[in-house]
Design a protein that fits this description.
3-stranded antiparallel beta sheet; 8-stranded mixed beta sheet; 13 strands
Length: 367
């Protein structure tokens, strides 16, 4: 019987199909978190917003860092309740809202398809991502399953829930982890910077995967950073996660050495200050360059891709004329400009639906 099952599985694989052992035959499954959210986490979030406006209204910034246009309009519409709770300083309601972040607007826009947890069946794109991830990384369902800390929904397996975002996050972390082992220096707390870090899903997987003690720098707009800070602090504790609101704090906490992998969440407004004081070993961007104007992409590249950066790994649009929110024409991966001392090592399609392409660049001065 076992040989017959293997034969059927192999034949289906040749035909381009995969078999998955599921709970409920492809139906969306739900998990109840087993850990109470610390109120101090939300207090830190509101302390952050005391200094940093969600749209940088109280900060004089270069045009490239402004949150404006169709992007701003979309955020105002997409994050209505989050913005209202911040405005009202309603810490109690924000606590309840954050505890259920995967069931509300706090994670909207942070992965590629479908936020409908009320849908009956798993979205078909998920299985494409899952299949690709297993082929690339040979990972198990256990490795892909979400921590028990959070209420979460997604694909149910015998080992736990796999969220829609996890397969791509896992491949990104897998690639970065391989690059870390190829760095030509033995510095403790190597710095990996994730630009456009979303809710912190990739950073979480990388921290769990990598045997080294890293400094993982997450850079995003304030609304997303608040969610990522809550997500990561709930898992790793406030002592290992820093939500940074000013240059002095940035210099202080990021200059220290740490016994554990630590996370440093930096608003995009502090990119010039970060660039002045620090340099990353690896810089990563997934999808968000394509959502920006070219002036913003060029600004980030100028400030983050410097002579001490060993690798730049990015995944962005591969389709000319592709339109995003607000009729924004996406910036293509091949139009991202790097210094002449960087060379392209490889470029390949992120998945079988070829909207995005992944490119890996190395620094010829270091590698």
């Amino acid at each position: 019987m076992l040989m017959f099952k293997d034969l059927i599985k192999n034949l289906l694989s040749i035909a381009g199909f995969s078999i998955y052992k599921t709970k409920g035959i492809g139906k969306i499954a739900h998990q109840k978190g087993n850990k109470r959210l610390d109120e101090k986490i939300i207090e830190r979030v509101f302390d952050f917003f005391n200094s940093i406006d969600p749209f940088y209204e109280n900060i004089d910034l270069p045009e490239a860092l402004e949150i404006g246009g169709a992007w701003r309009v979309d955020l105002i519409e997409r994050r209505k309740r989050q913005l209202q709770l911040i405005k009202n300083r309603d810490i109690e309601s924000y606590y309840d809202f954050s505890r259920r972040m995967f069931y509300n607007e706090l994670i909207k826009g942070m992965w590629s398809f479908s936020y409908d947890y009320n849908a009956k069946f798993i979205h078909r794109n998920f299985f494409t991502d899952l299949d690709n991830t297993k082929k690339i990384t040979a990972c198990s369902d256990k490795k892909l399953s979400f921590q028990k800390d959070w209420d979460i929904w997604g694909f149910g397996t015998d080992k736990g829930i796999i969220s829609y975002a996890t397969p791509k996050h896992y491949v990104q972390a897998y690639n970065i982890n391989n690059l870390i082992s190829g760095l030509n220096h033995s510095t403790e707390n190597k710095i990996v910077l994730d630009l456009g870090s979303g809710f912190g899903g990739m950073a979480n997987i990388l921290a769990d995967m990598c045997k080294e003690k890293l400094k993982i720098v997450l850079v995003d707009i304030p609304l997303n950073l608040a969610t990522a800070f809550t997500f990561l602090s709930h898992i790793y504790g406030l002592q290992n996660v820093f939500l940074i609101k000013e240059e002095k704090e940035l210099k202080s906490v990021l200059s220290n050495s740490y016994d554990n992998t630590s996370f440093f969440l930096i608003p995009t407004s502090l990119i010039p200050e970060y660039s002045h004081h620090f340099s990353s070993d690896i810089v990563h961007n997934a999808h968000s360059f394509s959502e920006m104007d070219k002036i913003s992409v060029d600004f980030y590249m100028k400030h983050l891709i410097k002579e001490k950066v060993s690798f730049f790994l990015e995944t962005n649009s591969n389709v000319s004329g592709s339109v995003n929110t607000g009729n924004h024409i996406e910036v293509l991966s091949r139009d991202i400009l790097l210094p002449e001392y960087f060379k392209l090592l490889i470029r390949y399609s992120e998945s079988s639906y070829t909207r995005y392409v992944t490119s890996l660049w190395s620094n010829k001065l270091l590698c």
